[in-house]
Amino acid sequence: MSTSPVFEWLGAELSTHTGYNALNSRGTLRLALQSAGLEPRTLTKEQAEVVIARVLPQDLKLRGVADAATVCMRIGMALKLMRFAQAGPESAESAFARLGRK
Amino acid sequence: MSQSFVAFIVGLLGLHMLVAALRHRALAEAWIGLFFVSSALGSEGVFRGFAELDPTFALRMVSFGIASLTVATVSGYAFTYTVFRRGEPWARGLVVAGTLLGLFGAWYQLAGPTGTADIKGLCVQFLIGRVACFAWGTYEALRAYAMAHRRLALGLADPIVVNRFLLFGVWFAVMGVMPMTLALTRMYGGVATQAIATGVGPKIVGTIMAVALVLTFFPPRKYLSWVAASAQGAQS
Questions:
Q1: Disulfide-capable partner of B173 in A4, B25, B39, B138 (CB 3.0 to 4.6 Å)?
Q2: How far apart (Å, rounded) are the C-alpha atoms in residues B231 and B236?
Q3: What radius of gyration, in Å, describes the C-alpha atoms of chain B?
Q4: Is-contact B50 B83, C-beta < 8 A?
Q5: Which residue of B has its CA nearest to A45?
Q6: Helix (H) / strand (E) containing A27
């Protein structure tokens, strides 16, 4: 399954800050996204910011990462400076938003 | 609510979606528009054909209806793929498999191994591809609903769109259950029982569908306010 550039970047960044290998960091990230109701293939920068601020700190803490909050803060700050190519296919939510009146 | 009335409304909705597809240059609207138009034409064709006494005219109506319903089935698969699983190879495979199943079903209904068309009712072989299409679409919509519900708690989803996933899942499931009920009635109760079921089933299903369709595509302002307020209440 293809993943969005944001997911790829986040996985690499998580490896750098936690010492996880690529498989572990991507797995941790996938679980965090799943609990937030998000998908790796359509993850956007805005969604990632929320996950890093509100979901990931707790997940990393549970996995015994020291200073999980600081790690997430650093990743979050680095993410703000990043620019990404448009994430994969259009999300189901934006397609459904167009289907009816709002 | 009569079956023809529902078909008329569904057909109009399909045209509306096709216009929206042209305006937005969007595939999702194009597929669902084609799905609605061909479903409306197809259901009219088969139900009138099954009730027709003149065998030549009945055959024409049923052939037209089955062809239209096959187009609807393929559009249903394509819509589910485009909206929920675009770019995923296994889903592309499912669309191809579903299309082949749909074509096999149409052949079985209109010619089949005996070379004679079945103009008395829908056969199970025709419905397999169609029911699978509705089952897949319903699963994807309800899965999207469950995921969007979690995003809602993080402020990452629009409550109205989240509700729309649920509504879509409901009417898609109901639309899939109807032909299955008719086929099962025919299998176990014969053609006469199916004729009775044909008179009752579409009316019940049509009413549920019409309500869900209106709430999905043309929701009243009051309903939208209620959905938004409920989501807000659940979050706080």
A1: B138
A2: 9
A3: 19
A4: no
A5: B156
A6: helix A22-36
Beta carbons of B26 and A96 less than 8 Å apart? no
pLDDT at B229 over 60: yes
Chain B residues with beta carbon closer than 8 angstroms to that of A58: none
pLDDT of residue B193: 67
Is the pLDDT at B204 greater than 80, yes or no? Answer: no
CB pairs under 8 A between A and B: 81
Distance separating alpha carbons of residues A23 and A12, to the nearest angstrom: 10
Q: Which pair of tokens denotes residue A35?
A: 């609990």
Q: Please calculate the CA angle B142-B227-B75 and round it to the nearest 5 degrees.
A: 40
Q: Which residues of B17-53 are buried (b: 16+ CB within 10 A; e: fewer)?
A: bbebbeeeebbbbbbbbbbbbbbbbbbbbbbbbbebe
Q: Do A97 and B158 touch (CB under 8 A)?
A: yes
CA distance to partner chain B, nearest, from residue A92 (Å): 5
Comparing alpha-carbon positions, the chain A residue that sits nearest to B23 is A98
Q: How far apart are CA A83 and CA A81, in angstroms?
A: 7
User: How far is the C-alpha of B200 from the C-alpha of B4, rounded, in Å?
Assistant: 13
Nearest to B76 by CA among B137, B16, B29: B137
- The pLDDT assigned to B196 comes to 66
According to the model, what pLDDT value does residue B46 have?
Answer: 81
User: In whole angstroms, what is the distance from residue B150 CA to residue A95 CA?
Assistant: 19
Q: What value does the mean pLDDT of chain B take?
A: 87
